[in-house]
Structures are given as C-alpha cells and as structure tokens.
Automatic annotation (TrEMBL):
The lineage of its organism: Bacteria, Pseudomonadati, Pseudomonadota, Gammaproteobacteria, Vibrionales. Its main location: cytoplasm. The keyword Plastid does not apply. It is found in: Cytoplasm. It catalyses: guanosine(2251) in 23S rRNA + S-adenosyl-L-methionine = 2'-O-methylguanosine(2251) in 23S rRNA + S-adenosyl-L-homocysteine + H(+). SUPFAM superfamilies: alpha/beta knot, L30e-like. This is 23S rRNA (guanosine-2'-O-)-methyltransferase RlmB. The gene is rlmB.
C-alpha cells in the first residue's frame, strides 16, 4: 500500500473532512493539547486512527524541517486523476473555470496555485505529467487543505488535452508578456481555462500556440514579471469578478 505524509493542521483537517478512510496513523507532538490541536486528535480517535505521541525532533525529521504545527498524518496515497477523470469533472459543470499550469515545478508554487484555485471555485487544475511538481507533503502544507479539495489532473499530452477542451467549447486563455491586451480587457466569462506558464520560461511553444487568446497582466513598476501563484490569483479573480457580474 502506497502511503504519504501530510503535515500541518489545515492539511490534516482537510483529509479528515474529505476522506478520513485514507488515514493510517498520526503523530502528535508530545504534551501539546491546545484548542487547535485537540479537536483534530478527538476526530482522529473517533475514526479509530492510531495516534502516537512523538517528540519534536522526530516530527521535525518526518516533516524535513518544515512547520508541522505539532501534527503529522500518514495517509494512503491519493488517487491520481487523468484525462478520463477530467471528462467526468467537465460533465458535472455547466460553466467550468479551469486552471492549467505548464511547467510549474516548484512545490511551493503548485501549493499556492491550488490554494488560489480553491478560493476561486476552480473545477480542476490541469498539469502535464512531465515538467510538473509532484503532489508532495510540501504542496499540501502550502495549499492549506486545497490539495484535498481541488482535483489535480495530470495529463500525458497537454496540447492534446487543450484541444479536447476546445472541442467541449472551453475557451482557453494563456498568459504571455507579448500579448497585445491585458487581463482586464479580456472576456473571461463562459466555460474557461486560464493557462499559466513557468516562471522565467513561460508557456511552452505548443501550449502557447494552442491557446485561443493571449493576455498579460499590466506592470507599472520595474519588475518584469510576477510569481506564478500571484499571477494566477490575479487572473482567476478577474475571471470570478466578470462571471459574478
């Protein structure tokens, strides 16, 4: 049975709420019984999860030095989603908003993008199987639980998946510095996928060529580009604003 560690209060709580059967065991900082941790411990015990009181060094080692907030869970690995799952997700949506990440390999950026996607009501985040960060404990921690609530779909051929989305009447908008108009001048209503490229390199050539439209974020200062998670948040919430209007 494949398993993985999740750490931090938000990540543990998210798995408990969505799929508690994934829990194998939990490790809790010895002597910590505060108001934030105690409800989680009680929930884990209610589901019959084995809880081990553990010293700080052992927790730090499992979390590889990251901030575990006194709790780590060992859970069954989440089911990997693919192209077939994406069709099921699309069939359940009347006006889907999707986020496509092309070449985002930093787990902190992936986690932050998932958090943005959850907040914006994104139906799925789509990434290529290659040139993409794996769904690690670091991603889950940064995502603050969003890694458990937002479907992360890994596809073999990103351009082919984009063309399939277009056949389903999904309009695909890519972000690129050379775009002739900005995000605030673009129509972001209706079935929509927003494509973000990797920092520095941006979208790959075939990804860019497959987009229906290219947009940019207007930059008033001396910095030429934004972190991909910040940029994705700006674009997603402009889409949310337009769709609410």
């Amino acid at each position: 049975m494949s398993s993985e560690y999740i750490y931090g209060i938000h990540a543990v709580k998210a798995v408990l709420e969505k799929d508690p059967a994934r829990f194998i065991e939990a490790f809790v900082l010895k002597g910590r019984q505060d108001d934030r941790l105690l409800p989680l411990i009680n929930q884990l015990q209610a589901f019959g999860v084995s809880i081990q009181q553990t010293g700080r060094k052992a927790l730090d080692d499992k979390a590889k030095g990251a901030n575990h907030q006194g709790i780590i869970g060992r859970v069954k690995a989440a089911k990997a989603l693919n192209e077939n799952d994406l069709d099921v997700i699309l069939a359940s949506q009347t006006n889907p908003l999707l986020l496509i990440l092309d070449g985002v390999t930093d787990p902190h950026n992936l986690g932050a993008c998932l958090r943005n996607a959850d907040a914006a009501g994104v139906a799925a985040v789509i990434v290529p199987k290659d040139k993409s960060a794996p769904l690690t404990a670091t991603v889950s921690k940064v995502a603050c639980g969003a890694a458990e609530t937002v479907p992360l779909v890994r596809v073999t051929n990103l351009a082919r998946t984009m063309r399939h989305l277009q056949e389903q009447n999904v309009w695909i908008v890519g972000t690129a510095g050379e775009a002739t108009h900005d995000v605030y001048q673009s129509k972001l209503t209706g079935p929509l996928a927003i494509v973000m490229g990797a920092e520095g390199d941006g979208m790959r050539r075939l990804t860019r060529e497959t987009c229906d439209d290219l947009i940019k974020i207007p930059m008033a200062g001396s910095v030429s580009s934004l972190n991909v998670s910040v940029a994705s948040g700006i674009c997603l919430f402009e889409a949310v604003r337009q769709r609410q209007g």
